[in-house]
Amino acid sequence: MSGDVVSIESYTAKAQSAKACDIAIIGTGPVGLFAVFQAGLLGLKCILIDALERPGGQCAELYPEKPIYDIPAYPVISGQKLTDKLMQQIKPFDPEFLYSQQVANLTKRDDGSFELMTTQGISIVAPTVFIAAGAGSFVPRKPKVENLEAFEEKSFFYAVRNRNTFIDRDVVVFGGGDSALDWTLDLLPQVKSLTLVHRRDKFRAAPASIEAMRKAVEDKRLRLVFGQLHGLSGSNEELENISIKTTDGAIEDIAANRALAFFGLSIELGPIADWGLNLNAKLIEVDTEKFETSVPGIFAIGDINTYPGKLKLILSGFHECALAAQAAFKIARPDEKLVFRYTTSSSDLQEKLGVA
Ligand SMILES: Cc1cc2nc3c(=O)[nH]c(=O)nc-3n(C[C@H](O)[C@H](O)[C@H](O)COP(=O)(O)OP(=O)(O)OC[C@H]3O[C@@H](n4cnc5c(N)ncnc54)[C@H](O)[C@@H]3O)c2cc1C
C-alpha cells in the first residue's frame, strides 16, 4: 500500500495515544451509520470519522428536507429524519464519532491491522476498515480572495470547531443556507457584534431560521449586508478588516476579527485515491460476497464502491453493510464462531440492543 510506512518502533511510540476498535468506518453517511448497527449485533466496536461536523452524509448535507420514498418500511422519510433514526438505532452500540476531520492516511501495520491518521492528528488502529465515503469528502468551497491562506483556520473558518473562538469577537458570517443561519443565530448572544453577508436577499434555510434572523436584524442585534467578499486584511493570522463588494458595487469595510464562511460544499475523492486500492472511474472495486476491496481487511460500502449491477441507493448500501460486517467479524475475532441469529428471537442480540 502507498502512504507512509509506519515502523514498529515509531508505531509503539504513537500507539499510546492511538484509539483502538474493531472497525474504523470512514464516512458517517447513511451507510456508514448502518454499518455500526450490523457490526454491533456481532459485538464489534466502531469508530467513525467524517470530514463534516455532523452525521448523515448526502442525506443531511444535500437534501435534509427532501422526502425519500424507497427506504423499506418508511413510505416517506426526509433525509434528516432518516439520519436521526439511524443515529437512534445505533445508540445501543455506543460508537465513537470523530467529526470535522478527513482520514488523510491509511497504512497497514506489520501485525496485519491498519492505522488511520486523521487531519487532526488522531490515530486509530483497527483490524478492519470500512470505507463508506460516498462520492468522497465533502470539502468547503473557498472564496477566491487574496491572502486567504494567511487567515484560514486561525481567524477565517469554514466550520465551528470551537465556539470559544467566536465569543466576544466581531464576527462576519457568509452564506444564506441553513449552516450560515443556524450559526448566526447560535453565536449571536455571545459575540461582540455579528454581520451576516449574503449575495442577495433570498435565503435557502428553514423558514423558522429566516424569520428569527430577520427579527434579529429588525431588533438591531444583527447587521445584514448584501454583497460578496472582496478582501481580507490583518496581521499575524488575525483578521482586522473584511471588505465587501455590496450589490450596488460599493466597497464596504467591516472591522472584524473572525469570519465564518458557508459557501457550500464540493466533493473530492481526496486521499482515498492514494491508498493502493483498485479503482474504477474513482470508485473502489469490491467483490459482491463481502464487499471487500483489493486489500484484504479493507471493505468499501455504499456509493463509493463499484461492482457489476451496482445501484447507488441507500438500501443497496444497507445490504452491503450486513455482509461486510460478517466478513469483518471473521478477521477481528478469528477464534470465535459466527452464529447467525434473528433479532426477533435471539436474547443475546436483544441484550446487545438493550431491549432484553
Ligand atoms: C438530491 C439527492 C436525492 C437522493 N435521493 C435518494 C433516494 O430517494 N433514495 C436513495 O436510496 N438514494 C437517494 N440518493 C442517494 C443517496 O443519498 C446515496 O446513495 C447515499 O447518501 C450514499 O450513502 P453513503 O453513506 O454511501 O455516502 P454519503 O451519504 O455520500 O456519505 C459519505 C460521507 O463520507 C465522508 N467522507 C468521505 N471521504 C472521507 C474521508 N477521507 N475522511 C472523512 N470523511 C470522509 C463525507 O464527508 C460524507 O459525509 C439521493 C442523492 C441525492 C444527492
- What is the radius of gyration computed over CA atoms, rounded to a whole number of angstroms? 23 Å
Major sheet description? 7 strands, mixed
List low-confidence stretches. 1-16
Residue-averaged pLDDT, rounded? 92
Indicate the percent of residues in helices: 10-25%
Bound molecules: flavin-adenine dinucleotide
Class based on secondary structure composition and strand pairing: alpha/beta
How many DSSP E strands?
Answer: 23
Number of helices: 9
Shape: elongated
Q: If strands are numbered along the chain, what order do they take across the biggest sheet? A: 12-18-13-14-15-16-17
Percent strand = 25-35%
Distance between the termini: 44 Å
Summarize the structure.
By secondary structure, this protein is α/β, with parallel strands linked by helices. It is built from nine helices and 23 strands.
Q: Can you describe this structure?
A:
This protein is of the alpha/beta class and 356 residues long. Helices cover 25% and strands 28% of the residues. The protein contains 9 helices and 23 strands. The protein has helices at 8-15, 30-41, 57-61, 79-90, 148-151, 178-187, 207-218, 314-332, 347-352; strands at residues 19-20, 23-26, 46-49, 67-68, 77-78, 96-98, 103-108, 114-118, 123-126, 128-131, 137-140, 156-157, 170-174, 193-198, 223-235, 238-246, 251-255, 258-261, 265-268, 279-280, 283-285, 298-300, 305-306. The strands form 6 sheets. The protein has a 7-stranded mixed sheet, covered by helices on one side. A 5-stranded parallel sheet has the order 6-3-2-10-22, with helices on one face. Strand 13 (170-174), helix 6 and strand 14 form a beta-alpha-beta unit. Helix 6 crosses helix 7 (207-218). The longest helix has 19 residues, at 314-332. The model is unreliable at 1-16 (pLDDT under 50). The structure holds flavin-adenine dinucleotide.
